[in-house]
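Appendix B. One record, verbatim.
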Amino acid sequence: MSKDKIAIIGNSTLQHGYFNDRIYLMKIKPSDIKRVFLYIAALQGIFFYSKIVMKIPKNLQPALPIKDVQVEAVIPDFYSAGNDALFISRFYTPSRAYDEYSTERSTTINRSIHDDNQSKIQPGNSSVLIRKATPGDIPSLSSLYQRNFVTYPFPIQDPKFLSRVMQDDTLFFVGEVDGVIIAAGSCDIDQEASAVEMTDLAVDEGYQGYGISKRLLTAMEEEMVSKRLKTAYTICRSLPLPVNRLFAGNEYQFGGTLINNTNICGSIESMNVWYKSLA
């Protein structure tokens, strides 16, 4: 199945397609709201996607023309003081809205928050060099993501996609052993909101359990603090304990769950939102 498409409407951005079977409104400007929702209505009328999810400022919520929506996650003060980021969804099929793993996910969230989250230094951690990625790393990044993700909501396995986002506002970090990239993560920066999505984290199987993800995340955060960004957040798989514990252990707060939201690791999964103030 082909990857979903990115559409730019004015200064707003959305993604849509059957790969994730959804419309995802990632960024909206108030001046674009009429055009954006006319476009969304046209897409839904043609493709009949089973979910629409929208990340919007709280102060735009009253203007939403889509009915029967629900707020699935919140990032407080994301756009400005009192103007939260809301992840608002509309489900069009009962199966998409059905929360099959609610009990397991609650267990993961509770353990992530309450377990001892201090990473232990393990043999092999100190031998990994953490650094910013360069365009010359794109072939290795592509290979890493191909090895670690059967499916992914964005085409990060594609070198052309990686090259394009590197030229925009996405900064990649890598973990390297003897010149070989064995881990990576990215910072997708929203300059206008002074925010950054910490995403695309992957560690090769043979190097998992050494605290490399924590070192990557810490390096990414330090760089974002130096850029004076005020909020970091992530949208991660809701069931695996290690990734949720990683963010909870780095003082991220739980913001909510996007039910059956993302085609990742071979199927549509629910995703947890975690956020942290960097200011």
